[in-house]
Amino acid sequence: MKTQLNGATIHYRREGSGFPMVMLHAGIADSRMWQPQIEEFAKHFDVVRPDTRGFGDSELPPRRWSPVADLIALMDELALKPAHVIGCSFGGGTAIDLALDHPARVSKLVLVGPGVSGADFGKKYPELWAEVNAAEEAKDMDALNQAEARIWLDGPGRPRGHIGGQLRELFLDMNGRSLRNDFESAPMDKLDPPAIDRLNEITAPTLLVVGDEDVPPVLDTIEILMSSIKGARKAVIHDAAHLPNLEHPAAFNRIVLDFLLD
To answer: Do residues 115 and 215 make contact, with C-beta atoms less than 8 angstroms apart?
Structure first.
């Protein structure tokens, strides 16, 4: 399904019925990353999976935009008040910003290897990004896509190509599509003040999910969130990198449903 929101055509998928659930994808993915969750989640919830502007089948007009403003507009259009919000990586950062600026819109919060606006733990680990930076400097999008698969899909502690087959093909297609877009022509508004200084304001019950093979900056972020969000719970999925829901869907689905249905 598609709709016009804030001057852009936004694509979303909607399945199931019941209490609303919004699933926000990672910045290396699109709404297809949640496909292994839909059969189970749609038994309990009205599941909405948007493609963020510039990802998947959503367009990226050359103008300023806000992920939270787009999300609020979609939730208003679909009458999702409030909703459980699940966000991975970049989508997790959007979910956090939503919970801070629009707390009444979030019932429960599930953050999967999330980013946090205003935090840049990646600066502590420059060696992680050497291959990615080289590909960016060379403007080699194929090499960049492969380098990002190495970091985010395989995980830095596992061999290159550890994840193959359909999962790797899906990653390269999802990430490759967004890499072709010109995000410099569409600057993104960010939360001000940023979330990193306001995490203790989050009131929604929060579950943190992380793969134990994720990158060190994400593991650092999880610890900050655990110490800052009152009552936050943590679930570690073993032998999983940045997209644990794709690597171990049965375990991920069980952990999240136990939290949301509690």
So the answer is: no
Are the beta carbons of 222 and 194 closer than 8 angstroms?
no
Q: Where are the alpha helices (DSSP H) in the chain?
A: 35-41, 67-77, 90-101, 130-137, 141-148, 165-179, 216-228, 244-247, 249-260
Q: What is the pLDDT of residues 44-70, one digit of tens each?
A: 999 999 999 999 999 999 999 999 999
Among 87, 113, 247, 111, smallest CA distance to 170 is for 247
Please state the pTM of the whole predicted model: 0.98
Cis peptide before 187 (omega within 30 of 0): no
Contact (CB, 8 A) for 177 and 53: no
CA distance 181 to 204: 34
CATH number at residue 214: 3.40.50.1820
**Enclosing domain of residue 189:** 2-120+185-260
